[in-house]
Amino acid sequence: MNSAALSPNGAYLAAATGPGLGAGTARIWDVTSGRQLGRFSTKAGPFWVVTWSLKGDRLGIGNDEGTIRPYDAGTWKPSHEFPGARGPTNFIAWSPDGTALATGDAENRINRLSKRFH
After folding, report:
1. What CATH number is given to the structural domain containing 69?
2. With contact defined as beta carbons under 8 Å apart, do 14 and 62 qualify?
């Protein structure tokens, strides 16, 4: 387990897994029923971090290559992709209004990613 996050309203639990440089998986569960609602896989490398927006309407997932994908809660479809070129994502932080992300990478750099989410 690389990362886990409970949504702000407590309805969903997201987790990121993946061993070393192998395949990775991110999953989302309904906390009340325990039912798995979403599953995302990659062969490129593990998912390192999951984090919810402050409203809980978006889930950000970062992988070993530094790529960040925000997913819409409920549909579990990606709303955008921010390609990374700096290595594993160590953290993702959402702006209070949910329109920008800040990420930190394995090279100790902080990156600001902007996208108008609707």
Report:
1. 2.130.10.10
2. no
Counting the structural domains of the chain, the total is 1
Residue 114 has, within 13 A of its CA and on its CB side, a CA count of: 0
| Secondary structure (DSSP) of 21-81 | TS-EEEEEEETTT--EEEEEEESSS-EEEEEE-TTSSEEEEEETTS-EEEEETTT--B---
Give the domain extent around 89. 3-114
C-alpha angle with apex 7: 65 to 90, nearest 5 degrees? 25
- pTM across the whole model: 0.85
- Counting as low any pLDDT under 50, the low residues of the chain are 118
Q: With contact defined as beta carbons under 8 Å apart, do 61 and 76 qualify?
A: no
